[in-house]
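The authors assume throughout that readers already know how a fold can be written as discrete tokens. Each protein is reduced to its one-letter sequence and a matching series of backbone shape codes. I therefore recommend that a typical entry be quoted early in the introduction. For illustration, here is how one protein appears when written out as sequence plus structure tokens:
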Amino acid sequence: MTEVDVALDVPSGAPARVATPAPGDPRLARLSLNQKTVDRWSFREAVDGCVAAGLPAIGAWREPVAEVGLDSAARWVREAGIRVSSLCRGGFFTGAGDLDRRARHDDNRRALDEAATLGAPCLVLVPGGLPTGDRDLGAARGRAADEVEALVPHALDVGVRLAIEPMHPIFAADRGVVSTLGQALDIAEPLPLEAVGVVVDTFHVWWEPGVEDQIARAGSRIASYQVCEWITPLPSDALLSRGMMGDGHIDFAHLTACVAAAGYRGDVEVEIFNADVWAADGNAVVATLARRYVELVEPHL
């Protein structure tokens, strides 16, 4: 039997529709493993997993990088011959107090420095939610916009783009007051193109009315394209509700074609927060996401 017949996908157990692409397969040329997808792996393990599977890029997270040391992480990436597609995460701008805002500003400057050391083209920004007891969503969104603008000089100095990630409205209270791609672009557009862009994450924007127009509007502002699935029923922890592509409701062909038509030519990160995926064998997860990517996403880039 061929690999197509016997390979099982993770976590659903559904038969694979395509064979696992081998290292060197040209269809993998833009695929990046966001480290959160293999949450149990260390940074070293994630780098080695990319190399073993033939993935040319990794989406790095600050905490695992800090665990091994920034200089070591940067060296491992260089020695492995892969690239860092993004660094997660900066942001969380919406605290109400001056001291909190100053601390967040300083931390985001450090994050930009870390991204530059790793060779990442962008720092993904999670805007932040409402402070405790605060119900003024507009004011919180305004603080996020002000703080992005305040970081522009340092972003230009280090050559790393600030990538604003709009988040699905279910996260507006606690995590992301910027809920639509349109809102993210309203913040980004007055600022230098080379300093500020947006993230198009399928999980967060697939539902957005007129998202096709907003992706076209984004154009060269698209700093990162991230893919994962919207699955139902949602788990009790909504943060862990991202699924493997093909297991849910998102039209990846349509959204990917829109992103490609907008001119995006960068890496495509698979970023999955899901307890079942995290509990599975990391190599099996990488093989599954590679199959799903070449089936559902790559043909439309």
In short: The two ends are 31 Å apart (CA to CA). The CA atoms of residues 43 and 64 lie 6 Å apart. Residues 137-158 form the longest helix (22 residues). The chain has a mean pLDDT of 94.
